[in-house]
Amino acid sequence: MDKNIYLSLLLDFYGELLTEKQREYADLYYNENLTLSEIAENDGISRQAVRDALLRAEIALTDTEKRTGLAARHTQLLKQIETAEALVSQISALNAEKLQNPALLSICAELQHVLEEMKL
Known about the structure:
The protein is mainly alpha-helical. Helices cover 85% and strands 0% of the residues.
């Protein structure tokens, strides 16, 4: 996974643990794609000060992920849900072709609904 995407994900999970400025700069840098110079100019500080704040934020985010593993677990669960959805689709297609069992189609629809709710 791209480093900026990964840090954006970590920011979603753990952003509240950062200082207000770290969170603001990280959001502008990782989510809004502003450069260090643009952030510095907008806030009236040096580019180096923005870089230092982002580095501290990155360290805090990655350390928290190492301790908790929540973002990795979330990503893993989303992949498992996608796999389960594909399997439900295969079962539905096979049932429509061969068995044509309305009860099985109903179960597949209900399972698909549960999987959709899990993604929220």
